[in-house]
Amino acid sequence: MLQLYVPLNFLGVMYRELKQSLVDVDKMFNLLHSAPDVLDAPDANELHVAHGRIEFKHVHFSYNPNRQILHDVSFVVEPNTTTAIVGKSGAGKSTLSRLLFRFYDIDAGDVLIDGQSIAKVTQTSLRRAIGIVPQDTVLFNDSLGYNIQYGRPDANATEVRAAASAAHLDDFLSRLPEGLDTAVGERGLKISGGEKQRVAIARTLLKNTPILIFDEATSALDSHAEKAIQSAFDDAARNRTTLIVAHRLSTIIHADQILVMEAGRIIERGTHAQLLAQNGSYAAMWAAQQEERTIEAVA
Ligand code: ATP
């Protein structure tokens, strides 16, 4: 009976949650990604972020018991710096960002923010401190302004406008007769992947979190869209602790630290210049991407 009770109870909870929050994408995201056993510790405290220092300490992790995904991963992201994670598809890059958000609990080691283990703080306070710009942003069938304001529902119109500007959306908005009131989504204006990501940046800027995760879109963007996202993101990253899951190395050459992952391990780390000088995996990836760009430019 107990074997049935647990999944049925979870389904019941899930149904109630879904019903309550059909328009609440953050909650849906949490629900879909977090296993039911990610629970607040009985004595969980609120997370206090004074500086925003992130530390992964000997982290071991597997989604399923028969396949280990991360092997002894350790790194520090110092406050107000940017760390980029690069590596082949499946290397474990996005897993690191999911673990920082505590969508899953780790098997061994610790993940700390300003010295506080994220397993020992409330999930609400943890997620309040972190803004995510996902690879593919879901837009509601509503106005652009609404979609940005979703980052902080009590923000006023001036703050929404400022967030849009900070995300370098002014040019785009000036071409729309209805500006921020333009309807988007399935039933509205179809906007490009690059514009969508800037809407997500504006939304996250409005949430104004000390920690920012940016999951770069894998799909190819034209160089104009890429530059617009890049400058929006660089501005957003200022004065925040930032983690970028990067696919295009050209976007992260100024990162304070680059971690190169392969099969769940960090195999190289350093700045762009240091990694090029090492002449290892990163240097090979860089050379391959430069060659691709040259071919694209000639074609
Ligand atoms: P990409 O560049 O393609 O986004 P990545 O480096 O971000 O890849 P992850 O998404 O972190 O890779 O995945 C690391 C490994 O974990 C992969 O082998 C993947 O198949 C596996 N994995 C990811 N999510 C799950 C899941 N929910 N359940 C089981 N295995 C998973």
Automatic annotation (TrEMBL):
An example molecular function term from Gene Ontology annotations: ATP binding
Gene Ontology, cellular component aspect: plasma membrane
GO biological process: intracellular iron ion homeostasis
Domain ABC transporter: 54-288
Membrane topology term: Multi-pass membrane protein
Compartment list: Cell membrane
UniProt keyword terms in alphabetical order: ATP-binding, Cell inner membrane, Cell membrane, Membrane, Nucleotide-binding, Transmembrane, Transmembrane helix, Transport
Protein name as annotated: ATP-binding cassette subfamily B protein
Organism: Hydromonas duriensis
